[in-house]
Design a protein that fits this description.
With 373 residues, this protein is an alpha/beta fold. The protein has 10 helices and 15 strands. Helices cover 42% and strands 23% of the residues. Helix 5 crosses helix 9. The structure holds adenosine-5'-triphosphate and magnesium ion. Its main location: cytoplasm.
């Protein structure tokens, strides 16, 4: 798939930009604070519905304006698709081929995108929430069903946590009601966990290959799904897993009431990353962690391709300056002529290896974008 056209109006520091993109490579050059990441952010929002750097919708609208618009024309194998998101004080509304969609989340799955930025080191280095988000976003983009399960799970979890707090504070004592929420949480939760395990099984093979490629065979990357339930075995089917989840909830009930929230479930699971059998998060060097973050992103590209039959659009925010020549080469080999890539950089120095493809170069300055040449 590739983006043919991008329009942003009153988004961040843009007044109005309209870009006709190259189906292969697009390079956006500009000094700090000019709008390069803003452009990638706008595109990424259309893939996932959320910004990777802000959860507050109003921050996305230009300070001097009341509403913003992002519009994309996307070429997929099935034909062209037009996507739009309108943002204002009331929130976000989305359109598919000029028709409004009921829910913002319904837009997920039309544009598939993988974003790689220096902050992705967090994926390897920091707490579990980054890895959960990685796996959730990755699966959501290729599975509407999973996306739906996640929304449902979040809803049940909120209700259950509210009830736990009420019981703790002596406002309600309905433990029967809690059992109903346990049932629902474990039913949806088991489905989510099984889907994640299935995807991690595919991802670990792809990521291992990427890691080997980048390190010329020196490093073996392993990924494991780290489940928060006691007594799990890989042979478990959905019914057994649901039963186990429910049993764990009963065992934790007292603790959960004391704390006022749910302490186990897919919202507490993690991925364990190891290099040559060593825990990467705890003991990995900066370079090893960076390589693994890149390997995970490359695995994500291949995973999406295998699920949808098409490569997603790749967004690279200022990453070339941080990669050494081996990693840069690995990335260039993957991209070469097959993945539409949108790259930002402060200067074009490290990008020379890429330019044997067909490409566009743009200059970004104070929220204005001009194509060069
Ligand atoms: N809601 C907004 N309205 C107007 N301007 C905004 C808004 N949000 C951010 N900006 C401006 O956008 C600019 C930041 O843009 P962006 O993050 O895209 O920079 P960049 O070109 O990626 O820079 P760097 O190279 O430092 O990463 C800042 O100057 C900021 O003041
Ligand atoms: Mg930036």
């Amino acid at each position: 798939m590739h983006l043919k056209r991008v329009l942003c109006r009153n988004f961040r520091n843009f007044d109005e930009i309209i870009l006709d993109l190259n189906s292969n490579l697009n390079i956006f050059l500009g000094d700090n604070g000019q709008g390069k990441t803003n452009l990638l952010e706008a595109i990424y929002i259309m893939a996932t519905t959320n910004s990777h750097r802000s959860s507050v919708c109003s921050e996305l609208i230009n300070w001097k304006k009341e509403e913003a618009l992002i519009q994309l024309l996307l070429e997929r194998r099935e034909g062209n698709i037009k996507l739009a998101m309108r943002l204002d004080k009331g929130g976000r509304r989305v359109e598919l081929n000029d028709n409004p969609l009921d829910k913002v989340k319904e837009m997920v799955g039309y544009l598939n995108a993988v974003l790689f930025s220096p902050e992705d080191l967090k994926l390897v280095k920091e707490g579990p929430s980054h890895r959960r988000e990685f796996i959730n976003l990755e699966i959501s983009q290729v599975s509407r069903y999973y996306n739906h399960l996640l929304s449902k799970y979040d809803h049940i979890l909120k209700q259950r946590n509210n009830l736990l707090k009420s019981i703790r504070d002596g406002k309600k004592s309905s433990e029967n009601m809690l059992s109903i929420w346990d049932e629902q949480l474990s039913t949806i939760g088991a489905k989510i966990i099984l889907k994640r395990i299935e995807v991690v099984d595919k991802l670990k093979i792809l990521a291992r290959l990427s890691q080997r490629q980048i390190t010329e065979g020196k490093e073996e990357l392993e990924i494991e799904y780290d489940i928060s339930l006691d007594g799990f075995s890989e042979k478990m089917g959905e019914a057994e897993l649901r039963g186990l989840f429910n049993k764990n909830l009963k065992e934790k009930r007292e603790q959960e009431i004391n704390r006022g929230y749910t302490v186990i479930g897919p919202h507490r699971d993690d991925l364990i990353l190891k290099i040559n059998e060593m825990d990467l998060r705890k003991y990995g060097s900066q370079g090893q962690q960076r390589t693994a973050a890149l390997a995970l992103k490359l695995a994500e590209l291949e995973f999406m391709k295998s699920e949808t039959g098409e490569y997603p659009v790749l967004l690279l925010d200022d990453v070339f300056s941080e990669l050494d020549s081996l990693r840069r080469k690995a990335l260039i080999n993957i991209i070469a002529n097959k993945i539409q890539t949108i790259i930002t950089a402060t200067d074009g120095e490290n990008l020379s290896g890429l330019k044997n493809n067909s490409y566009h170069v743009y200059r970004v300055k104070e929220g204005k974008i001009k194509k060069r040449g």
